[in-house]
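Sample intake — Ester cyclase
Collected from: Streptomyces crystallinus
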Amino acid sequence: MVDDNKQAVRGFFEAVSDRRPADLPRFMAHDVVDHNKIIHGEADEPGAAFEGLRRQLAAFDPLTVHIDELIAEGDRVVARVTQRGVHGGAHPRMPEPTGRGFDVEAIWIFTLAEGKITEIRAVSDRLGLFLQLGWDWPQI
């Protein structure tokens, strides 16, 4: 089970990095909940992760996620990753595209059931992301 869960997470990151959003249902449950909000106000409801990932792929091209470390126990997989991309596209909750690149580290925690990701939590270097892209820090 642990190895299958790790393989599902690898497949998820490969689909994101290879810009294959149509393959995401192979790795994510239809009602997956993504608690990782890069942009304030993104939906945190079952299934919203699919649209959120599509929007991020539209905003960041290229976007790659390199797995630096993968740890699994039971129904959980933790990935330490390096995320790289260029802000070249539009996103309704992001500033206008800057054309600038970024390279940040992140920790993703996945919960899986029956070989599919059911829940995502992540912590990333958002300050580094904002600084590298030239974005203003959000005022909430």
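Post-analysis note: The first helix runs from residue 2 to 17.
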